[in-house]
Every structure is written in C-alpha cells, then in structure tokens.
Amino acid sequence: VQLVESGGVLVQPGGSLRLSCAASGFTFSRYDMTWVRQAPGKGLEWVSDINTSGGSRSYAGSVLGRFTVSRDNAKNMVYLQMNNLKLEDTAVYYCAQGYGMDYWGKGTLVTVSS
Predict the structure, then answer these.
(1) Cβ distance 39 to 58 under 8 Å?
(2) What are 4-29's pLDDT values in tens digits?
(3) What secondary structure letter does DSSP report for 84?
C-alpha cells in the first residue's frame, strides 16, 4: 500500500488549495478514504472521509462548508479541496486508507499565513 499526498504550499488566509492523494498497491475503489491533519505541536485531527463510491462524505465541524472531499476511482486519487483557509488550518495533512486508517501517507504541509 502506498499513499502519496501532494499540493501543500504556503497560502494566505482566505485562499484555496487542493490536496491530492495518489493511491497504489491496493484496489482503491474498494476502500473508503480518510483525511486527517496534525497542526504544529498538536495531536491528530480527523478532517474528512469519503466512502467507496463518493456518495457519502463527512467533515469535521472545523472545516464543514469550507472543505470538500472527492475521489476518482479511475485514477486512484482522492482530493481535498480547501477554501477560505484560516490560520488554524496550518497543518500536515495525511490521507489514510479506510475509516480505520490502516495505512497512511507521509503527509503534505499546508501553511496558512499572511
């Protein structure tokens, strides 16, 4: 199983980013996927998840209405569109396999700063 996140950069408050996660080594379409994040000096925070078909999506209250999770099973990709970014969204973002997060990527750093 390999999960590789990308798209993290420095962005100003109010800006937008799309994170990507490329999955390989397993039958992607059979697994739900999860995004979690870890802010500097803080613990892990569940951000969002999406079921196998993409028809069911869930979000943490802190990102609801600003973030959108999606997936492309043909490309083995999962995405996190992040809009209206806030300072407190600064974190390393990880994608993980399944709701149980059995496998993780190495993460991508999102820095929100003016």
Answers:
(1) no
(2) 999 999 999 999 999 999 999 999 99
(3) S
Q: Which residues contact 15 (CB under 8 A, 6 or more apart)?
A: 85, 112
Give the distance, in angstroms, between the CA of residue 80 and the centroid of all CA atoms in the same chain: 5
Count of alpha carbons within 13 Å of 13, Cβ hemisphere only? 5
Determine the Cα–Cα distance for residues 84 and 42; give it in Å rounded to an integer. 22
The pLDDT assigned to 92 comes to 98
CA quadruple 105, 109, 49, 68: dihedral sign: negative
Position 95, amino acid:
C
* Phi, psi (deg, nearest 5) at residue 96: -140, 150
Q: Are 80 and 93 in contact (CB under 8 A)?
A: yes
Collapse the DSSP code of 87 into the 3-class scheme (helix H, G, I; strand E, B; otherwise coil) and give the result.
helix
> In angstroms, rounded to a whole number, what is the distance separating the alpha carbons of residues 21 and 19?
7
Quick one: average pLDDT of 23-50?
97
DSSP state of 103: S
20 CA to centre of own chain:
7
